[in-house]
Amino acid sequence: MTTPETHDVDGSLRIPNTAEDILRRAREAVPFLRERAAGIEAGRRLPEDVVALLRRNGVFRAAAPKDRGGPELTSVQQTELIETLATGDVSTAWCSMIGMDSGIYAGYLEEDAVQEFYGDLDTANSGWIHPQGRAERVPGGYRVSGHWRFGSGSTHCDVLVAGCRVFKDGEPEPDPVTGDPVQWRVMVARPHQYELVDTWFTTGLAGSGSGDYRVTDLFVPEEHSFSFQVPRRTGPLHAAPDAILRKMSGVPLGMARAAIDHVRDLAGTRVDRESGTPWTDSPRVQSTLARAEMELAAARASVYSGLEAQWAALERGDEPTAQQRTATALARYHAFRTARNIVSALFDLVGGSSVYREKSPLDRWLRDANTMCQHAVAQDSILELTGQVLLGGESRSPFL
């Protein structure tokens, strides 16, 4: 199956640049992604034609601001985009979610660096921002060394970032904004400047190519680094520290939607082996699917209502309340956990035939669900962090 392309009158490929067009193209791509999903997983990375599809469909430019010529999708629209792609292939959606961070990261860099790394709106981003590396301050910039994990999309990205702790003369350099004893900065470079290490042999999200990468003594100019504490653009895209996390819920929500639809389709032709009851008449099947729909609807409503309220507050320039700060984080945690529960329940409902990789996507979805729930946003520590804020304490997370 191929996906439709749109061209200008001169024959050049037209990349969509509005939320409506980008979302429409994503919906059109879903059948193609479903057809390719098993091969994507087997290849342990996104193949070139899938990356090209995402690029020409405007996925990587989705978060680019309008004043740079981009479509500037809101948090809700970004999440809808990722959710749609996830109904086709979860690994593709995961890489898309990270790849479109190019539009967000550009808001933290000086203009010359923006033009150098993100001048092309369709730049695919990758990298682990957790400060796992070490950046020793030297004249004009930093000497960077480190080994980072979870470089989702690093096999096809145009820009590879790496989080570092900053040192000066061998001692930790305090953060000038927060006063923290160690400064956290993100280094921006090209993927060929690192050594990519093929470590991505995993249970789920196997097609995301989320291998390790490392470097020793790489010089990174000062202007090719940034701090999340110092956005250089105003507006909702960069006004809150969780900008890169807001769209993440689209991955589990889309996966759960695809799993429910798959089992509803199966129910039309299946008969219970023991009782001979058609699945459409089985109370067990009816109850399981109804519960799945109910739980997904509740999780989805929580995600989107929180994002809508947050975006509106950021547009007004309001200082977020503790309730607003925690609502999106809790909804995100809940979406990941709920989606895993839904897929697991459907896997059990379908029974023995769900275990075959070549015959049932439920096997892949269950493994994807378990792997994505190991991300920090889906860990129980989120409950502790948000609870602390709700009770009047200070957050220990830079994204809350």
UniProtKB/TrEMBL annotation:
<feature type="domain" description="Acyl-CoA dehydrogenase C-terminal">
    <location>
        <begin position="249"/>
        <end position="379"/>
    </location>
</feature>
<keyword id="KW-0560">Oxidoreductase</keyword>
<dbReference type="InterPro" id="IPR013786">
    <property type="entry name" value="AcylCoA_DH/ox_N"/>
</dbReference>
<dbReference type="Pfam" id="PF08028">
    <property type="entry name" value="Acyl-CoA_dh_2"/>
</dbReference>
<dbReference type="InterPro" id="IPR037069">
    <property type="entry name" value="AcylCoA_DH/ox_N_sf"/>
</dbReference>
<dbReference type="InterPro" id="IPR013107">
    <property type="entry name" value="Acyl-CoA_DH_C"/>
</dbReference>
<dbReference type="InterPro" id="IPR036250">
    <property type="entry name" value="AcylCo_DH-like_C"/>
</dbReference>
<feature type="domain" description="Acyl-CoA dehydrogenase/oxidase N-terminal">
    <location>
        <begin position="33"/>
        <end position="106"/>
    </location>
</feature>
<dbReference type="InterPro" id="IPR009100">
    <property type="entry name" value="AcylCoA_DH/oxidase_NM_dom_sf"/>
</dbReference>
<dbReference type="InterPro" id="IPR046373">
    <property type="entry name" value="Acyl-CoA_Oxase/DH_mid-dom_sf"/>
</dbReference>
<dbReference type="Pfam" id="PF02771">
    <property type="entry name" value="Acyl-CoA_dh_N"/>
</dbReference>
<protein>
    <submittedName>
        <fullName>Acyl-CoA dehydrogenase family protein</fullName>
    </submittedName>
</protein>
